[in-house]
């Protein structure tokens, strides 16, 4: 009997865990998953963790549990070196792991574009650790502003889904917190959303952008479009127009680039934003033993937006294709099935997009449908990892006992 193929997955996000779950139980594969976090989480929910409207319990799955369930080995660490010739990956914890096939699922981060002051003076929500830090800062800022009888100025840069949903979720956090509520939010929060382009939510039809802008303005949020940030300091943002936007709490949610860890894979083709170039079988163009999926990969022939649904489908594809590669076969190419997109503004409103021309949402009932679909995408992924019954119980528990954010009121 031939030795089991050693498969190493770097990154336990949506795509990485889907791949590990599909491959871990195969008898001819010995799989190891490496991630710096001890738990798996649904990255599109980071804005909810950052606002304190989603709890860790039931929504953060220990990798040790999934490793035991799906039959793979989990190592909590981060890669520091990759030797493609020797087929080894060195980790921050001092160990070196060999591989026959490497699956890179390291995800992405916001792109600061090298703008002065962004890294030093802004918060990000690229990871659960970032989201937890943002909530702690937001909670402290709310308490400090209320104690001083002052406004809390919040500035978020980035009018895509992340920035739009985050600023709405911060409103929801104050509305739902014990001892606070909508009246307190209106007198307390001075928030601004800054977008370089001509409108927010550029991936959606213009009608959705207009409706979302009106909804945010109804919540008391200022929406600045066509506003290019050229610098940041500890008081706020500097715009190209010369205007200074005051913000005591500053969040950068603009742009997308591959995780810096992909730079460890020297000699491979990569795009302008650091993504590894891959073929239609998701193998890197210059090394067929290295696969890349999710936000850190790019198929030049048919680029795919960096979304959780794309990463999930690619992870599931790896589960089918890699065993064929190991067997010496050529798998069928990856085909992305775009199931549309959804953006949910807390409990206030929501919209969905079935394709490039058809959108839905807006208003109380249709907005509710969009928000339920938004949650349903997450629950579907969770069911694949935890099972249908545990996911159903967790969902029911959360709806019967909604989270009351702890803002120290």
TrEMBL record:
Pfam families, alphabetically? Pyr_redox_2 (PF07992)
> Domain of life of the organism in this record?
Bacteria
Q: Which residues form a coiled coil?
A: none
Cofactor dependence is on: FAD
InterPro entries (UniProt xref): FAD/NAD-bd_sf, FAD/NAD-binding_dom, NADH-Q_oxidoreductase
Q: Which ranges carry the FAD/NAD(P)-binding domain?
A: 6-315
> What GO molecular function annotations does the UniProt record carry, in alphabetical order?
NAD(P)H dehydrogenase (quinone) activity
Q: Which UniProt keywords apply?
A: FAD, Flavoprotein, Oxidoreductase
Q: Name one GO biological process term.
A: aerobic electron transport chain
Q: Which family does it belong to?
A: Belongs to the NADH dehydrogenase family.
Q: What is this protein called?
A: NADH dehydrogenase
Q: What is the lineage of its organism?
A: Bacteria, Pseudomonadati, Pseudomonadota, Alphaproteobacteria, Acetobacterales
């Amino acid at each position: 009997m031939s030795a089991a193929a050693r498969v190493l997955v770097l990154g336990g996000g949506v795509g990485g865990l889907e791949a590990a779950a599909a491959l871990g139980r195969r008898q001819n594969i010995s799989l190891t998953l490496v991630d710096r976090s001890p738990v798996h989480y649904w990255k599109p929910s980071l804005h909810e963790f950052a606002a304190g409207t989603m709890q860790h319990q039931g929504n953060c799955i220990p990798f040790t549990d999934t490793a035991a369930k799906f039959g793979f080995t989990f190592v909590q660490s981060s890669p520091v070196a990759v030797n493609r010739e020797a087929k080894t990956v060195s980790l921050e914890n001092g160990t070196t792991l060999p591989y026959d096939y490497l699956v890179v699922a390291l995800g992405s981060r916001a792109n600061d574009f090298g703008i002065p002051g962004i890294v030093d003076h802004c918060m990000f929500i690229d990871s659960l650790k970032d989201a937890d830090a943002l909530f702690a800062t937001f909670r402290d800022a709310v308490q400090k502003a209320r104690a001083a009888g002052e406004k809390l100025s919040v500035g978020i840069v980035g009018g895509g889904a992340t920035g739009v949903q985050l600023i709405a979720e911060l409103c929801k956090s104050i509305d739902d917190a014990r001892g606070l509520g909508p009246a307190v939010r209106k007198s307390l929060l001075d928030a601004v959303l800054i977008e370089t382009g001509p409108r927010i939510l550029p991936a959606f039809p213009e009608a959705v952008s207009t409706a979302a802008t009106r909804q945010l303005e109804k919540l008391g949020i200022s929406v600045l479009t066509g506003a290019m940030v050229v610098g940041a300091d500890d008081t706020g943002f500097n715009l190209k127009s010369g205007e200074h936007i005051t913000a005591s709490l500053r969040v950068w949610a603009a742009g997308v680039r591959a995780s810096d860890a992909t730079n460890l894979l020297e000699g491979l083709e990569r795009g302008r934003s650091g993504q590894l170039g891959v073929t239609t079988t998701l193998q890197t163009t210059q090394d067929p033993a290295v696969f890349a999926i999710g936000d850190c990969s790019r198929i030049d022939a048919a680029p795919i937006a960096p979304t959780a649904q794309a990463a999930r489908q690619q992870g599931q594809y790896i589960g089918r294709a890699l065993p064929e590669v190991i067997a010496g076969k050529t798998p069928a190419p990856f085909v992305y099935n775009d199931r549309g997109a959804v953006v949910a503004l807390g409990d206030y409103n929501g919209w969905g997009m079935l394709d490039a021309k058809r959108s839905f949402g807006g208003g109380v009932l249709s907005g509710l449908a969009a928000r339920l679909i938004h949650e349903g995408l997450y629950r579907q992924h969770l069911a694949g990892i935890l099972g249908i019954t545990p996911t159903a119980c967790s969902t029911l528990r959360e709806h019967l006992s909604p989270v009351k954010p702890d803002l120290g009121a």
